[in-house]
Design brief:
By secondary structure, the protein is an alpha/beta fold. The chain folds into two domains: 10-39 and 300-429, Beta Barrel (Lyase, Ornithine Decarboxylase, Chain A, domain 1); 110-293, Alpha-Beta Barrel (TIM Barrel), CATH 3.20.20.10. 29% of the residues lie in helices and 24% in strands. The protein contains twelve helices and 21 strands. It has helices at 24-31, 40-55, 73-81, 91-99, 116-125, 135-148, 187-196, 218-238, 264-281, 295-298, 332-336, 425-429, and strands spanning 10-11, 17-19, 22-23, 35-39, 61-66, 85-88, 107-109, 129-132, 152-159, 181-182, 201-207, 244-249, 288-292, 302-314, 318-323, 343-344, 354-359, 368-375, 383-386, 408-412, 415-420. Strands 4, 14, 15, 16, 17, 18, 19, 20 and 21 form a nine-stranded mixed beta sheet that branches. Helix 2 runs parallel beside helix 9, helix 5 packs across helix 6 and helix 8 (218-238) packs parallel to helix 9 (264-281). The chain starts with 9 loop residues before the first strand and ends in a 20-residue tail after the last helix.
Length: 449
């Protein structure tokens, strides 16, 4: 079996894939397919791995779960129980956190274009930190804090100019990025000076996030060095004292057997060692350390389960096997050329004797989940499990072709709990207005909302 399956996965006596003590065929019969399965043991294991790896090396550290990888109330409850905070990037993610009873003092609000309404919500709800991304946000937040009689505690997101050697769409820390204040252009210093001069803002620290699905650790060492040097310069020029520091997250996971991602122990060693060395070199006090793993906590906990339908053989070229999901629930292969492996859940121990391409059911030639994979012979009705599907698949899911977004079950010790139901056809129309309800307005009239 692939090493990338959840830690509870095994082939049971019926030659079926089992996760969290639940037979995948039983899950498919009960909940249908496509179906996303999250293994609670793997989720908790990854939370503890990060918390313990950093906690053994550093006294004052907070691990935030990066919600953009995937968040819903059931997962938020697990992260709360495991002692993590949350990194949110929208009012929607913030709303889920609040409705889930998550302690908002442990929520950090990111985003490159937060609206005044979102920032007001963050202030009203007592969000722990707002990570400011640009001058426009600085001005809005300062005004809102003044109006509300509050002092907003903020971090500045900086662009250190570090190339993390990942997909271009996942690169966020270079100078030419939509995120953050670049250090090299002088804008980071200007932002820091403006923040320190704002009586309704309290600048507590610096943040950087250089990208996602990053395999190398040297870019993180470089990021720490650059930000600590900047912090030291700001002490001399502006009297800035850095109480918090975050090098972000973005650490890779294993999607295929060939991948060799860093593990939490190695990540913690690289970040903490560099932080200690640079703080000592620049005579800076050690700040609170905040790290933000997302994919590397949730990714390996999730498995997507599909039913196989038709096949198409193109003699001498390729054999396609079609499944009942695809680009609407997992756009990553089309968007990033992401690679996955798979296991036939009802033939989990059988040898792989044919090579097929796994294609989705949607009207796009790019709706290919896996190119050229060796599997046991597939026939209609087989169940195909794709591991490492816990991150970004569901966050990026859509109703393309008016597809119904899939249900999610959380499995633990032989029990399965539905934590998101499958959408219904009525759900597809719940926000649409029919002809008799439509209100027409004259040009230049304000719209009725």
């Amino acid at each position: 079996m692939p090493m990338i399956l959840p830690i509870t996965a095994r082939v049971n006596a019926r030659n079926h894939l089992e996760i969290g003590g639940c037979d995948c065929l039983d899950l498919a019969r009960e909940f249908g397919t496509p179906l996303y399965i999250f293994d609670e043991a793997t989720l908790r294991n990854r939370c503890r791995a990060y918390r313990e790896a950093f906690g053994r090396r550093y006294a004052d550290v907070l691990v935030l779960y990066a919600s953009k990888a995937f968040l819903n109330p059931a997962l938020a409850a697990i992260f709360k129980e495991e002692g993590l905070g949350l990194d949110v990037v929208s009012s929607g993610e913030l709303y889920v956190a609040k409705k889930s009873g998550f302690p908002l003092s442990k929520v950090y609000f990111h985003g490159n274009n937060k609206s005044a309404e979102e920032l007001a919500m963050a202030l009203d709800w007592g969000v722990g930190r707002i990570v400011v991304d640009n001058f426009h946000e600085l001005e809005i937040l300062n005004r809102l804090a003044l109006e509300k009689g509050q002092v907003a505690e903020i971090l500045l997101r900086l662009s250190p100019g570090v190339d993390p050697h990942t997909h271009a769409y996942n690169t966020t820390g270079i100078v030419d990025s939509k995120f953050g204040f670049p250090i090299a252009t002088g804008q980071a210093e200007a932002a820091l000076e403006q923040a320190l001069a704002s009586p309704d803002l309290r600048l507590v620290g610096l943040h950087a996030h250089i990208g996602s699905q990053i395999f190398e650790l040297e870019p993180y060492r470089d990021t720490v060095r650059i930000l600590l040097e900047f912090a030291a310069d700001m002490v001399e020029r502006h009297g800035f004292q850095m109480a918090e520091f975050s090098p972000g997250g973005g650490w890779a996971i294993r999607y295929t057997q060939a991948d060799e991602p860093p593990e939490p122990e190695g990540i913690a060693e690289a970040v903490v060692e560099t932080l200690r060395d640079e703080a000592a070199w620049h005579c800076l006090p050690l700040p609170k350390l905040v790290v933000e793993p997302g994919r590397s906590i949730v990714g390996l906990a999730g498995v997507a389960l599909y039913s196989v339908g038709a096949r198409k053989e193109v003699p001498g070229l390729r054999t396609y096997a079609f499944v009942d999901g695809g680009i609407a629930d997992n756009i990553r292969p089309a968007l990033y050329r992401a690679r996955y492996e798979a296991i036939v859940a009802n033939k989990a121990g059988d040898p792989a004797t044919e090579t097929v391409t796994i294609a989705g059911k949607y009207c796009e030639s790019g709706d290919i989940l896996i190119q050229e994979i060796a599997l046991p012979p597939l026939v209609a009705g087989d169940l195909l499990a794709i591991p490492a599907s816990g991150a970004y698949c569901l966050s990026l899911a859509s109703n393309y072709n008016l597809a119904l977004r899939p249900p999610i079950v959380l499995v633990k010790e032989g029990k399965a709990r539905l934590i998101r139901r499958r959408e219904s056809y009525e759900d597809l129309l719940r926000n649409d207005l029919f002809g008799e309800e439509k209100k027409y307005v004259r040009q230049n009239e304000s719209l009725p909302f």
